């Protein structure tokens, strides 16, 4: 279950649709802006939230990333990049800027309430605890490892696309995700019982 | 990049364990609230390119001109109007004295040209409810 971030749409079709929508926006179609926002804002928000660990900051970053899309719309070169990839890159850079300005690490406002109608209270609590534990462990990773792991294993992107977003080689992406996962494993393994994963 | 050397992937068991955490995170993906959506769409509206506005103005002008043409009787009427306009310009430029004399005579009463309205009676009858 991937939820609102399902990647089932064909990438090529998405590219064509996105570019057509952006061109329509640049030509004055307000409905195109809404369609692009509905398609990309959730993904940009999710990435920003997992990078920053703060919903308020993530919303500011997501808004700024979309704002940059509106600004570049009249000059967008068709076929040069996927709009989704471009937005991820902009959001990643904005998150990096914020993380470098930060003194401490905010871990509040990590998770949305879960839909408890689908599971028992105990299972829901365990699920929420796992999300919080993962977020805490992610925030302890070096920033680039965190970015690669989030894009690969939570956002579900492929390594070539992540390489494009992070502007590194595919091999470097593989290395970052491998090291990030090892570090996460080391952080989370002692908490498995507490989180309802053992016994 | 020296800090990005490759290393072994976690084992299958470890990867499966981590996947439970990733799965939980994916199930709780944040959804943008109405306030954020409104802020983003307000930005989009504020930054809508100026060219789009002028294109909209041009299309409105074309539409209005088409409507006016239809109200005046379509292309035949527009052709007649254009021909009369060209003829008037031609007379004014080729024989300005003739045009000037005709206008002077008309206003001074010396002209033998009489203007009468052939529809005047009908209009009167219409007012009286004859039709």
TrEMBL record, chain A:
Residues 37-102 form the RNA polymerase sigma-70 region domain. Belongs to the sigma-70 factor family. ECF subfamily. The keyword Lipoprotein does not apply. Gene3D superfamilies: 1.10.1740.10, Winged helix-like DNA-binding domain superfamily/Winged helix DNA-binding domain. It comes from the Bacteria. It is an enzyme of class 2 (transferase). GO terms for biological process: DNA-templated transcription initiation. GO terms for molecular function: DNA binding; DNA-directed RNA polymerase activity; sigma factor activity. This is RNA polymerase sigma-70 factor. Residues 132-184 form the RNA polymerase sigma factor 70 region 4 type domain. NCBIfam families: PRK12524.1, sigma70-ECF. InterPro entries: RNA_pol_sigma-70-like, RNA_pol_sigma-70_dom, RNA_pol_sigma70_r2, RNA_pol_sigma70_r4_t2, RNA_pol_sigma_r2, RNA_pol_sigma_r3/r4-like, WH-like_DNA-bd_sf. Its EC number is 2.7.7.6. Keywords: DNA-binding, Nucleotidyltransferase, Sigma factor, Transcription, Transcription regulation, Transferase. The keyword NAD does not apply.
């Amino acid at each position: 279950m991937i939820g609102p971030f399902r990647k089932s749409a064909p990438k090529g079709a998405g590219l064509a649709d996105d570019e057509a929508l952006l061109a329509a926006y640049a030509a004055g179609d307000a409905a195109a802006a809404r369609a692009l926002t509905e398609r990309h804002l959730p993904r940009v928000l999710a990435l920003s939230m997992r990078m920053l660990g703060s919903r308020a900051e993530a919303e500011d970053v997501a808004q700024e990333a979309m704002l940059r899309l509106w600004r570049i719309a009249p000059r967008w070169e068709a076929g040069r990049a996927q709009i989704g990839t471009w937005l991820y890159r902009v959001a990643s850079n904005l998150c990096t800027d914020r993380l470098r300005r930060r003194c401490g690490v905010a871990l509040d406002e990590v998770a949305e309430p879960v839909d408890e109608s689908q599971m028992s209270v105990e299972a829901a609590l365990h699920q929420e605890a796992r999300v919080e534990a993962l977020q805490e462990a992610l925030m302890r990773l070096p920033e680039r490892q965190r970015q690669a792991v989030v894009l690969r294993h939570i956002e579900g992107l492929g390594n070539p696309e992540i390489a494009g977003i992070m502007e590194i080689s595919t091999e470097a992406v593989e290395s970052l995700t491998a090291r990030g996962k090892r570090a996460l494993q080391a952080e989370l393994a002692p908490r498995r019982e507490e989180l309802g994963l053992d016994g | 990049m020296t800090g990005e050397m490759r290393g072994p992937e976690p084992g299958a068991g470890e990867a499966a364990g981590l996947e439970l955490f990733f799965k939980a995170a994916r199930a709780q993906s944040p959804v943008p609230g109405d306030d954020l959506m409104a802020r983003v769409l307000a930005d989009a509206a504020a930054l809508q390119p100026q060219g789009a506005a002028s294109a909209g103005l041009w299309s409105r002008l074309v539409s209005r001109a088409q409507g006016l043409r239809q109200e005046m009787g379509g292309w035949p009427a527009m052709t007649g109007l254009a021909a009369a306009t060209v003829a008037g310009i031609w007379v004014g430029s080729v024989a300005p004295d003739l045009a000037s004399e005709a206008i002077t005579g008309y206003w001074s009463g010396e002209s033998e040209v009489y203007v009468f309205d052939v529809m005047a009676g009908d209009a009167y009858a219409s007012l009286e409810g004859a039709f």
